[in-house]
Each structure stands twice: as structure tokens, then as C-alpha cells.
Design brief:
- By secondary structure, this protein is of the alpha/beta class.
- It folds into four domains: 1-28; 31-157 and 283-363, FAD/NAD(P)-binding domain, CATH 3.50.50.60; 174-279, 3-Layer(bba) Sandwich (FAD/NAD(P)-binding domain), CATH 3.50.50; 379-481, 3-Layer(aba) Sandwich (Glutaredoxin), CATH 3.40.30.10.
- Helices cover 30% and strands 24% of the residues.
- It has helices spanning 2-27, 57-68, 102-115, 178-181, 197-206, 226-232, 330-350, 355-363, 384-392, 408-424, 439-444, 471-482, and strands at residues 47-53, 73-76, 90-91, 100-101, 119-121, 125-129, 135-139, 144-152, 156-158, 174-175, 189-193, 212-216, 238-241, 244-251, 256-263, 268-273, 276-279, 283-285, 316-318, 379-380, 398-403, 429-434, 452-457, 460-465.
- The strands form six sheets. Strands 1, 2, 5, 6, 7, 8 and 19 form a seven-stranded mixed beta sheet that branches. A five-stranded parallel beta sheet has the order 10-17-11-12-13, covered by helices on one side.
- Helix 10 packs across helix 12.
- The chain is globular, with a radius of gyration of 26 Å.
- Bound molecules: NADPH dihydro-nicotinamide-adenine-dinucleotide phosphate (NDP).
Length: 483
């Protein structure tokens, strides 16, 4: 009898243990099925079963796994399609390749995720609502997307110094992209600010062009890897100065002429004549558009649950530099993108979204369909006389996009420029100029950087922009000219 009671007590104890371990493992994934009720989707349109924000390695790899699982996967490519890798050149630490160009990695990844059915839209999410499900995504092009699950892979943006002259001379000697602008500094003296791998890489990208490249490091040592620092020594035109801080960017009415440097070891200030300032001082995660929809870390990265890509909102995952303060490597972003893509597919399975439901939505035209690619071609002019005739002497205002084949940000803006040109061509003349072919036009209109957008009205240059613009910004730019 005693033995029986003991067995009975142990049995109860076991059940308690089992149940507590059940709840333990389930707490992380326990979903409130009233919130994630699959029936809510049947009266909606513009549904994206998996919506991925960002198209760097993290976004593309998430798309690959979403697509391979058979789910309709939408990639909203953002303002920098392909992400920061498109602004690098040689990459030596991408797994599986001893040497590969950064933009080529992105081309390969996009081709691979596209092969598995991922769909791409050249649009940027500006606002999200994660308080209701399906989640709402509001884009720069004015679209509202109903996303069943979301992967945030929006990356990070270069940091600025915030010193006098930096904004004033932006695009006129101050830049964050050596691969974009190095050819404009042939035989010039330039500085690179920063002490990390990016600074080392920027300096090496400048080496074939600039005469003297000085890396300005604020501490008494560089943060760049030992391998990078060793490679720097192979370049006689690159030197490193330590304990120096840039306090001001100086220039004339045209472009940068120098910087004011403070030596924090000797407490001295000096003027350094140079014509280019390349900033490489780290990055800020792109989370502003999220508002308070999601929990961030103290450093502004997206907070993730331990060892998963899950954010503070169930059904929303994050990967890549936007959620990574530690590794910040393309390979790591790709791996985390894969995890996030898998997490998204697990989530869809959990809420009961399957191929039958997807087929039903597809048959009823409720799935989001990306804008079809246009075959419209923007007029290209590289001859000064023709340029004067078509642009300068015309009664119609004109927007001119100066680009170059080797400039990744130029290539990223071209689709948006083409779309706006097609829509506004009856009111504005849109022209593109190849900076490599049109030396006389470049010289006449003093273009010192690509991409550059110049607006012409009544024969004069009335506005200049030395940065890429989103479709919405281009529309606003066009509208302001015809007012
Ligand atoms: P990091 O954060 O590694 O380095 C930023 C550098 O900028 C540091 O030297 C920092 O100085 C300096 N800095 C920051 N703010 C200022 C300021 N206001 N004034 C002057 N200097 C400042 O950023 P990176 O962009 O270089 O690298 C990011 C990640 O990407 C890293 O993990 C890096 O390894 C990786 N990467 C890898 C590459 C490769 O392997 N091919 C190429 C490029 C990047 P301090 O040290 O004093 O804080």
C-alpha cells in the first residue's frame, strides 16, 4: 500500500515535471491565436505572406529560404538596393570565394532567391503597424501591404562627424563612398577619417587615384584587423596619423580645400590642405521608421530573443547589421538572414498558413503583386553641344542625372529615375549623362561627384544634389521645378 502510494506520488510529480517542461518550451512560441487568426486574411488584399525589408545579404538569404519553403516572398529593396556590399570592391572573406567583388555577391544572391520565387519591389517601407495582424507596412510609393510575417533586414547607414563644413561640402569633397568617388580625386591629396576596417578599405580604394592618402585616427591605434593594417603598409601613398580629430571642413565656393585638425596628444591645432574627406567612422542601424513598434537595444539595434532572430513582436524577425552590434560581417548577415527566413516559415506553419491557403489567396488575386518592370529608356546625352540644345536652351525645365558605370549608388538610383522620368516626361526633360563619356559637360557644369542631380530652368542651373534620391524625393524635386 505504501509502495503504491509512493508510485502514485512519483507519478503526480512526473506529470508536474513534464507539464512544467511543456510550458517552458512553449512559452517562447505560444501564440495568441485570436491575434494571429488566419480568418482575418480572407477579406484583405495586397497580402505578403513573407515580407522582407532590405536587400543586402541578410534580406536576400531570408528570401531564399522563404522562397524555397514555397511561400510567396516579397523583398522590399529599400533606398540602397543590395545594401552596403554594393559599395565595396574586393571581398576576401565571403565564405567559399577567395576573392569576389561585393556587388557580385549581391547579384548572385538575388539571382538565387529569384530562382526560388522571391519577388522584388523597388520601394521602401516608411512606417509599420505591428499592433494589428496581418502587420501593416506603409511604403514610400504610398502602398499599404498586409504582411503575415516580416523580416527586418534594413542594415545600417554611415555615421557622420557632425562638425562645421561637413554638410555644406557634402558631395563637394566630403563623402562616405571611396568606391563611388575615388576617380574624381586623381593626383589629389585626401584624408580618410576613422580607424576601422572600413577606413583601411577606403584608403586602398583611393590608392590607384589619389596622390597622398592620410588616414586620420583619433586614438593611438587603429581598430582595423591586423591583416588589413599589414596590407596598408604595401601602399607607399597611404600614411596613418594617430591622435588626430577633424574639427572642421574648410572650402571655397566650389569644393573642399582643407580640414582643421586637433592633436589630442599635444593639444595643438593645425590646418591640413586637402581636397577630399572620406568618412569611415562606423554605421547607425536603420530603425527610425520603426518608431516604437519594436524593442531596440541601448545602442539602437533591434533587440533579439536569445539565439534566435525573433524580435519583441511575435512574427517579426530581424537579421543583419540592423540587429547586430557584434559581428557586422556580410557572411554573418547571410547566416542570420537564413535563420530569419526559416523562422518566418516556422511562424507561418504555426499559424496554419499553408500552400492551400496561399493558392486560394492567389486565385482570388489577394497576394501583393510587385510593379512590372518598365522598358522605358531615359535619354542619354554625352555631347556638350547636344546637351546645350536639349537641356540648356529648352523652355522646359530639365533634371539631369550624372552617373558612371562603376558607381554603385548611381546604378541603384537609375530605376527610380527612369520611373519618374516616364511619369513626368510631358512636363520635364529627364536626361542622364555618363561622367566617363561626357568630360566637357562635367567640366562646364563643375560636377565633382556622381551621382549628381542638376536641375536646369531657363538656361541656368537652379539646383544641385550630390546624393541619391528615392522615387518620392525625385517626384517632389520634379514638382518643385514646375511650380
Ligand atoms: P568600426 O566601428 O569598426 O570602426 C569605426 C572607426 O571610426 C573606429 O576607429 C572609431 O574610432 C572611428 N570613429 C568613430 N567615431 C568617430 C569620430 N567621431 N571621429 C573619429 N573617428 C571616429 O566601423 P567600420 O565601418 O570600420 O567596420 C564595421 C564592421 O565591418 C567591422 O566589424 C569591420 O570589421 C567590418 N568590415 C570588414 C571589412 C572586411 O573585412 N573587408 C571591410 C569593412 C568593414 P575608435 O576606435 O576610437 O572608436
Amino acid at each position: 500500500m505504501r509502495k503504491q502510494r509512493l508510485v502514485w506520488v512519483l507519478g503526480i510529480f512526473n506529470i508536474i515535471l513534464l507539464c512544467s517542461s511543456c510550458t517552458d518550451t512553449n512559452t517562447d512560441t505560444l501564440l495568441d491565436m485570436r491575434f494571429y487568426d488566419i480568418n482575418k486574411i480572407y477579406n484583405l488584399e495586397n497580402i505578403a505572406p513573407i515580407a522582407i525589408l532590405g536587400s543586402g545579404p541578410a534580406g536576400e538569404c531570408a528570401a531564399l529560404y522563404g522562397g524555397r519553403a514555397g511561400f510567396d516572398t516579397l523583398v522590399l529593396e529599400g533606398t540602397t538596393p543590395g545594401g552596403l556590399l554594393t559599395q565595396t570592391t574586393l571581398v576576401e572573406n565571403w565564405p567559399g570565394s577567395t576573392e569576389i567583388q561585393g556587388p557580385k555577391i549581391i547579384v548572385n544572391l538575388k539571382e538565387q532567391s529569384g530562382k526560388w520565387g522571391a519577388k522584388f519591389e523597388l520601394d521602401t517601407v516608411e512606417k509599420v503597424d505591428f499592433n494589428q495582424w496581418p502587420f501593416k507596412l506603409y511604403t514610400a510609393d504610398g502602398k499599404k501591404i498586409n504582411a503575415l510575417t516580416v523580416v527586418l533586414a534594413t542594415g545600417a547607414t554611415p555615421r557622420y562627424l557632425g562638425i562645421p563644413g561637413e554638410q555644406e561640402f557634402w558631395g563637394r569633397g566630403v563623402t562616405t563612398c571611396a568606391v563611388c568617388d575615388a576617380p574624381f580625386y586623381k593626383d589629389e591629396d585626401v584624408v580618410v577619417v576613422g580607424g576601422g576596417d572600413s577606413a583601411a578599405e577606403e584608403a586602398m580604394q583611393l590608392a590607384p587615384y589619389a596622390k597622398n592618402i592620410t588616414i586620420l585616427v583619433r586614438k593611438d591605434h587603429m581598430r582595423a584587423s591586423a591583416a588589413m593594417q599589414t596590407r596598408l603598409q604595401e601602399y607607399s601613398q597611404i600614411s596613418v596619423r594617430y591622435n588626430v580629430e577633424v574639427k572642421e571642413v574648410l572650402g571655397d565656393e566650389m569644393q573642399v580645400t582643407g580640414v582643421t585638425l586637433y592633436n589630442n596628444k599635444n593639444d595643438t591645432t593645425e590646418h591640413m590642405p586637402i581636397s577630399g574627406v572620406f568618412l569611415a567612422i562606423g554605421h547607425i542601424p536603420n530603425t527610425k521608421f520603426l518608431g516604437d513598434a519594436i524593442k531596440l537595444t541601448n545602442h539602437g539595434h533591434i533587440h533579439l530573443a536569445d539565439r534566435t532572430q525573433e524580435t519583441s513582436v511575435q512574427g517579426v524577425f530581424a537579421a543583419g547589421d540592423v540587429a547586430d552590434a557584434r559581428y557586422r560581417q556580410a557572411g554573418v548577415s547571410a547566416g542570420h538572414g537564413i535563420s530569419a527566413g526559416l523562422d518566418a516559415t516556422f511562424f507561418l506553419n504555426e499559424i496554419g498558413f499553408n500552400q492551400d491557403v496561399q493558392t486560394k489567396l492567389k486565385d482570388e488575386y489577394r497576394l501583393y503583386t510587385p510593379t512590372a518592370e518598365s522598358d522605358y529608356k531615359v535619354l542619354e546625352i554625352n555631347d556638350l553641344e547636344e546637351f546645350k540644345r536639349v537641356v540648356v536652351e529648352s523652355d522646359k525645365p530639365a533634371i539631369v542625372d550624372f552617373y558612371a558605370d562603376w558607381c554603385p549608388t548611381c546604378m541603384q538610383m537609375l530605376p527610380a529615375f527612369t520611373a519618374v522620368a516616364q511619369d513626368m516626361e510631358d512636363k520635364i526633360t529627364f536626361v542622364k549623362v555618363d561622367a566617363d563619356q561626357a568630360k566637357e559637360i562635367i567640366k562646364t557644369y563643375k560636377v565633382a561627384k556622381v551621382p549628381a542631380l542638376l536641375a536646369f530652368k531657363d538656361g541656368d542651373v537652379v539646383e544641385r544634389h550630390a546624393k541619391t534620391m528615392t522615387k518620392r524625393e525625385l517626384y517632389a524635386f520634379g514638382e518643385s521645378l514646375i511650380k
